[in-house]
Amino acid sequence: MTADRPTPDAPLKIGTRGSPLALAQAHETRDRLARAFDLDPAAFEVVVIKTTGDIVLDRPLKEIGGKGLFTKEIEEAMLSGAIDLAVHSMKDMPVEQPAGLVLDTYLPREDPRDAFVSREVSAIAELPQGATVGSSSLRRRAQLAARRPDLNLVEFRGNVQTRMRKLDDGVALATFLAMAGLNRLGMAEVAKGAIDTEEMLPAVAQGAIGIERRADDHRVAAMLEAIHDADTALQLAAERAFLAALDGSCETPIAGLARLEGGTLTLRGEILRPDGSDVLDDKAEAPAEDGAALGREMGLRLLERGGPGFFDWRG
Ligand SMILES: NCc1[nH]cc(CCC(=O)O)c1CC(=O)O
């Protein structure tokens, strides 16, 4: 490591999307690396890369379709050597990476819960009959439709400011965001509160940041070891195996959250029909090192229980 430490003249290039949250996540990664190796932050260069998901803003993501909407261009930049590592919200990451790339470094996970965001109302239970709420997330829409079929759901995308403006314009009475994103942006005050995971189970990997690298880049691999969070990795092994068994992505109505306590992983999983007319859930535990089997078996169990037809919505 000491032989080829990055320097301001030969910086390590950190690729990221340009959204405020993506930039905050890239800066967190840079600061953790700089601290771990006692390096000048100028020994890192944050390189902003536009992805399809950033360019197409007028349609719900599920309509644009395809996996890796926020990752393809970044992964190409890494394979070509234009950047050395890439910082991602693990919630948005496909369960498999392109050949030549590895994604196995995680920063300590932020709050995995969803946030209830409204100017006027304090919680889901306080929403009046028939209230309009905004969300473009298939999972959140299905969960809301299941618990509150009276609500009127409208599409809602954009960064936090855009969404708050829509609330002020009366487009909806409330919306939902990840607590993790709000915390990392220092904007938690727009949330009325975090939603209990018994009420709304979060997306797989919500709140976790992953760092991707070239498989043959041993210098970067050695550096990333210093900032890796092993507990987050154990949780994500279970959650992502669950998602993989269902062949899902962040744009399918699937929820899953693992908790780690005293060497035991407890995984909760949920699959829904998009209209909320059917919800299947499961909970199971296993030793911490068996997360992948725990997740995979739960996914297969739910597939079996759902039967053919349950996944008609799957593309
Ligand atoms: N799909 C968009 C996305 N991807 C990651 C986050 C938030 C940060 C995180 O969950 O790690 C968000 C926005 C949101 O759901 O509020």
TrEMBL record:
Domain of life, per lineage: Bacteria
GO terms of molecular function: hydroxymethylbilane synthase activity
Keyword Transmembrane found: no
EC class: transferase
Keywords: Porphyrin biosynthesis, Transferase
Cofactor annotation remark: Binds 1 dipyrromethane group covalently.
The UniProt record lists the keyword Transmembrane helix: no
Catalytic activity, EC: 2.5.1.61
Pfam families referenced in this protein's UniProt entry, alphabetically: Porphobil_deam (PF01379), Porphobil_deamC (PF03900)
Pathway recorded for this protein: Porphyrin-containing compound metabolism; protoporphyrin-IX biosynthesis; coproporphyrinogen-III from 5-aminolevulinate: step 2/4
GO biological process, one term: protoporphyrinogen IX biosynthetic process
Reactions it catalyzes: 4 porphobilinogen + H2O = hydroxymethylbilane + 4 NH4(+)
SUPFAM superfamilies: Periplasmic binding protein-like II (SSF53850), Porphobilinogen deaminase (hydroxymethylbilane synthase), C-terminal domain (SSF54782)
Residues bearing the modification S-(dipyrrolylmethanemethyl)cysteine: 250
Cofactors required: dipyrromethane
GO CC terms of this entry: cytoplasm
UniProt miscellaneous comment: The porphobilinogen subunits are added to the dipyrromethane group.
Assembly and interaction partners: Monomer.
Family matches, as HAMAP family: Porphobil_deam
Known role: Tetrapolymerization of the monopyrrole PBG into the hydroxymethylbilane pre-uroporphyrinogen in several discrete steps.
Family per record: Belongs to the HMBS family.
PANTHER family in the cross-refs: PORPHOBILINOGEN DEAMINASE
Name of this protein: Porphobilinogen deaminase
Species annotation: Brevirhabdus pacifica
Gene for this chain: hemC
